[in-house]
């Protein structure tokens, strides 16, 4: 199944035998033990707190350590009470129960202090850290009451004469009022963050507080997504809402089901890192992308057999306690939840819809730590389905998403400046699913008097505005410069202005990446580095210049490495060897497949204005000669799919003899050679396999090109941006120059 549930804790397996061995059995029957043995909390480090009732009328609280796989009895109350929630400090010396909000010394069992003696629903939670620095000195406790207030208690721990841990200030425990009169509250145990909403006359205020192990806290700007489902108003329809409070919008999803009784809707929301799984047993399993929620193709919607989950013991709703951990409350089992990469890959291969394929690719490339074997299988699927994906290019998606994942860890906010998908928009409908986006009142973020808060808030707001200012491969200005650079690279004439010098300076940084003299690809790499550096320097204000330079260089290097990675998978699968470099043999089906993949890579690189790795174009030319008839080969060259390189032409001259077929091939290739290559191979004209007829034809073609360039001098595409056509003087100069040039050639 797509979601893999692994049991990490089971009350019946891990606790019941231990409790029975204490000499105080849980009950005389298994039915009663299932009613009294319950999980009451899961702490940040994974420790599980549970409670049970003994036959003597005692109520006990125990702790299970998942690392040591041991149980420990923390405290016993001499009568039967309902403990619905509890928390233990890091040093395991204090226990707070939800039963009358008692704080109890448990090492040794000594004092009991009533913090809140009101008969109301409360939640108790010790602030914790992953380190034990603050475990033995001072503890900080949050109490959230249904009377709509939140208090933080400061409990100091000391030692008595027998070196035992005791509460120093048990008679007067200081406390701070964190909030009051809130409408809604949510505690994030992993991040130690508290979210709550307070109503005001102008609108609701969203507060987000970050707590630290030393007891300090601060208001921060953070994102928050709320998932909830609505009571059905239409039979056989299930509706749930995702509210992105930090973005001021919500998405309402409506799903067609076969359930006619609303009471049978047992919905679970499961947090899986960047996704939230919406699970309706035997009906639907949706993976909602909370990181990139804009388009429907970023979410994965499964139904039928694909939506089933194995390993669960009942259909009761699951409760998320930690990220990627849920509790099956009716059985007392704690599961760790993960995405099964094998099943996800199977879903990709069996899918026939582009929306599902794109959602799975997005999940693989941006959110999962790919295993090497699964990554090779994913690339293999991409190569096999290049022609079946209609609405997007799998190669572009692979390169862009992989670059975003790889470089987002470089520095803060970089993920907002780089593109994460090749799909600009999505308008296609998805079967049985409807989605509407609504603008909601955006809660005002809490502003306090802390130092530099305004500066931090405005900085965050600025970067939120820049989320649309991503680096676009198909940007018009970059595309224009890209085409101009290709034109200049195929001729002897080079621009010498400051902009061109900047490109050449960046090109020098890519020299180690080029093992052969592919000057055009070096220049294209330099152009991409210039454009990306300008983009990052404009928006990434927090990074120094050397950091930006490193990011840009890593961007280009990883880009080239991804293309090589695709070729390596193709080469290993089809067992291609050095024989493909021989020009006097025909290619087989494996070589034709490799050539097809390389052509699709070339097309993707052209659309993205992206350079290709060193030797790529030369290797593509060798495969084209072996796989294509001469007419198709020349059409590919004329259309720009194939680019002639110096290494290919030299090998063509040295290897092929002078039979009729080879002479026709060489003649056709030479007539299409760029001028910058011609100047480097003139010394090979005297080679034994050369032909004077070919040389004569080529010289005739070269003179024709020279004549055409002189006639079309000062054409509109070559003029400076400052050129103004309506000036009479410019018009007169252009006309006189044309007459003069024509006169010279007609004499």
Q: How would you describe this protein?
A:
This protein has 747 residues and is α+β, with helices and mostly antiparallel strands. The chain folds into 4 domains: 8-187, no CATH class; 226-439, no CATH class; 476-643, no CATH class; 716-746. The protein has 20 helices and 30 strands. Strands 10, 11, 12, 13 and 14 form a 5-stranded antiparallel beta sheet that branches. Strands 15, 16, 17, 18 and 30 form a 5-stranded mixed beta sheet that branches. Strands 1-28-27-26 form a 4-stranded antiparallel beta sheet. Strand 17 and strand 18 form a beta hairpin.
Offer a concise description of the structure.
The chain has 20 helices and 30 strands.
Spell out the blueprint of helices and strands.
Blueprint: E1 3-10, H1 11-21, H2 30-36, E2 38-42, E3 48-53, E4 59-65, E5 70-77, E6 86-88, E7 94-97, E8 102-106, E9 109-114, E10 122-126, E11 138-145, E12 149-159, E13 165-167, E14 175-180, E15 184-188, E16 193-200, E17 203-211, E18 217-219, E19 225-230, E20 237-244, E21 249-256, E22 268-272, E23 275-280, E24 284-289, E25 300-303, E26 319-322, E27 325-328, E28 333-339, H3 341-350, H4 354-367, H5 372-384, H6 394-407, H7 414-417, E29 433-439, E30 444-445, H8 453-465, H9 476-489, H10 498-508, H11 519-539, H12 545-574, H13 589-607, H14 616-627, H15 630-638, H16 646-655, H17 660-670, H18 675-681, H19 692-711, H20 728-746
Parallel strand pairs: 17-30
Antiparallel strand pairs: 1-28, 2-3, 3-4, 4-5, 6-7, 7-8, 8-9, 10-11, 11-12, 12-13, 12-14, 15-16, 16-17, 17-18, 19-20, 20-21, 21-29, 22-23, 23-24, 24-25, 26-27, 27-28
């Amino acid at each position: 199944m797509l979601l893999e549930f692994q049991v990490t804790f089971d009350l019946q397996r891990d606790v019941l035998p231990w409790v029975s061995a204490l000499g105080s059995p849980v009950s005389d029957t298994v039915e009663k033990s299932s009613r009294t043995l319950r999980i009451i909390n899961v702490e940040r480090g994974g420790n599980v707190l549970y409670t049970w009732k003994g036959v003597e009328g005692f109520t006990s609280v125990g702790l299970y350590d998942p690392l040591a796989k041991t149980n420990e009895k923390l405290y016993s109350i001499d009568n039967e009470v309902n403990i619905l929630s509890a928390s233990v400090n890091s040093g395991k010396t204090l226990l707070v129960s939800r039963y009358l909000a008692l704080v109890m010394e448990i090492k040794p069992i000594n004092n009991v202090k009533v913090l809140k003696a009101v008969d109301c629903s409360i939640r108790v939670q010790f602030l914790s850290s992953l380190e034990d620095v603050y475990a033995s000195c001072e503890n900080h406790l949050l109490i959230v009451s249904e009377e709509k207030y939140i208090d933080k208690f400061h409990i100091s721990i000391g030692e008595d004469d027998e070196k035992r841990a005791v509460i120093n200030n048990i008679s007067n425990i200081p406390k701070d009022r964190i909030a009051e009169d809130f409408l809604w509250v949510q505690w994030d145990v992993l991040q130690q963050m508290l979210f709550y909403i307070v109503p005001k006359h102008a609108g609701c205020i969203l507060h987000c507080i970050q707590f630290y192990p030393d007891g300090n806290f601060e208001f921060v700007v953070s994102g928050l997504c709320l998932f909830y489902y609505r009571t059905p108003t239409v039979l056989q329809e299930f509706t749930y809402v995702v509210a992105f409070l930090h973005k001021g919008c919500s998405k309402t999803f409506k799903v067609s089901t076969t359930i006619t009784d609303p009471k049978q809707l047992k919905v679970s929301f499961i947090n899986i890192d960047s996704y939230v799984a919406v699970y309706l047993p035997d009906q639907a399993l949706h993976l909602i992308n909370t990181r990139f929620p804009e388009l429907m193709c970023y979410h994965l919607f499964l139904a039928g057999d694909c939506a089933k989950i194995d390993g669960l013991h009942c259909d009761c709703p699951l409760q998320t306690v930690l990220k990627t951990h849920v509790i099956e409350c009716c059985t007392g089992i704690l599961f760790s939840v993960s995405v099964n990469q094998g099943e996800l890959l199977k879903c990709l291969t069996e899918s026939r819809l582009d929306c599902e394929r794109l959602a799975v690719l997005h999940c693989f490339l941006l959110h999962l730590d790919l295993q090497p074997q699964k990554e090779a299988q994913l690339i293999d699927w991409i190569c096999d389905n290049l022609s079946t994906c209609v609405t997007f290019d799998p190669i572009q998606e692979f390169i862009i998403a992989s670059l975003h994942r790889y470089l987002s860890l470089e520095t803060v906010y970089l993920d907002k400046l780089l593109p994460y998908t090749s799909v600009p928009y999505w308008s296609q409908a998805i079967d049985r699913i409807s989605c509407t986006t609504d603008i909601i009142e955006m809660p005002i973020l809490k502003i306090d008097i802390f130092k530099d808060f305004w500066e931090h808030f405005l900085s965050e707001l600025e970067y939120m505005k820049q989320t649309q200012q991503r680096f676009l491969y198909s940007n018009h200005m970059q595309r224009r410069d890209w085409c101009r650079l290709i034109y200049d690279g195929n001729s002897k004439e080079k621009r010498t202005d400051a902009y061109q010098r900047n490109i050449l300076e960046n090109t020098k940084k890519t020299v180690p990446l080029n093992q052969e003299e592919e000057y055009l690809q070096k220049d294209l790499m330099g152009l991409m580095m210039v454009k990306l550096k300008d983009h990052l320097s404009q928006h990434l204000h927090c990074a120094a210049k050397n950091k930006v330079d490193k990011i840009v260089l890593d961007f280009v290097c990883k880009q080239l490495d991804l293309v090589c990675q695709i070729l390596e998978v193709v080469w290993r699968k089809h067992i291609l060897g050095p024989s493909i470099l021989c020009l006097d043999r025909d290619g087989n089906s494996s070589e034709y497949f490799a050539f097809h993949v390389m052509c699709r890579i070339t097309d993707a690189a052209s659309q993205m204005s992206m350079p290709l790795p060193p030797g790529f174009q030369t290797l593509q030319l060798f495969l084209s000669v072996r796989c294509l008839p001469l007419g198709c080969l020349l059409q590919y060259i004329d259309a720009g799919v194939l680019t002639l390189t110096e290494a290919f032409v030299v090998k063509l001259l040295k290897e092929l003899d002078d039979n009729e077929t080879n002479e026709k091939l060489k003649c056709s290739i030479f007539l299409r050679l760029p001028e910058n290559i011609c100047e480097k191979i003139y010394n090979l004209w005297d080679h034994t396999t050369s032909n004077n007829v070919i040389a004569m034809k080529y010289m005739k073609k070269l003179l024709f090109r020279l004549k055409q360039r002189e006639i079309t001098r000062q054409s509109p595409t070559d003029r400076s941006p400052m050129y103004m056509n309506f000036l009479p003087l410019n018009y007169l100069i252009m006309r006189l120059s044309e007459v003069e040039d024509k006169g010279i050639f007609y004499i």
